[in-house]
Amino acid sequence: MLILLGVWAIGYLVPSLLLGILLNTQLPSWLAFGHVYVLFGVYFTWYWTKTGQTLAMQTWKVKMVDENDLLLKRNQALIRYAISSLWLIPTVIIYIIFKYVFDYPLGHWPTIELLFFMSLLFWPLTCLFDRHNPSGAQSIADRLAKTKLILVIQ
User: Fold this and answer.
1) Which contiguous run of DSSP H or E holds residue 81?
2) Contact indicator for 84, 78 with CB cutoff of 8 Å
3) What is the pLDDT of residues 57-89, one digit of tens each?
4) Residue 112 φ then ψ, to 5°
5) How far apart are CA 109 and CA 59, in angstroms?
């Protein structure tokens, strides 16, 4: 997680601060989100296609491979990244329900807590519902992108 914080700081925060200091402006929130989304997509895609492991995956000794245990191709890595970020959709739906249906706008911290709940708890639990793979459960993103995580034994 700290690696992603570093990627975010160098790839987004520094340019955003320079934009604010030099031009006295800031990106609209939708464009800032898109910038970070693309930045993280480049990070994950690059690592998955070059070594099969991000730095955090190296620590946990797991590797992302295709169904034939080969490194992912760029298109497959991009599909995997896009599908793995689908947890944002239920998060946005819940946010809209609270804001517009119940007229209860979530503040910054409850919104962040909702994002963490969906990304770190709910979405990974989808592995428990995988009954098709006898060798080990896969997440929805792995199943749809035809990828899998394997243990690296050295």
Assistant:
1) helix 74-84
2) no
3) 898 899 999 999 999 999 999 999 999 888 777
4) -65, -40
5) 30
